[in-house]
Amino acid sequence: MHPHLHTKDNRGCEEVMRALDDCHDEGFLHKLFGNCNKLKTEVNKCLRAERLERTARNREEAKKKREKTLALWKDIDDNS
To answer: Whole-prediction pTM value?
Structure first.
């Protein structure tokens, strides 16, 4: 399973997702015989790469925020 495909977080995968949607639109039998499997794998890889990039960015932002908070607490402790 994958998350909702067409969201602001998945802009980098839009082309691959559109290709998968087009493949799914070709009909049930087309999907049944695995003709969309390669595209599905590509979507999964792209979404994973997007998620890893997003989590790394969030981790860095959290680290900076934590350092700022610790500095403020140190300043409070030193001036108390």
So the answer is: 0.74
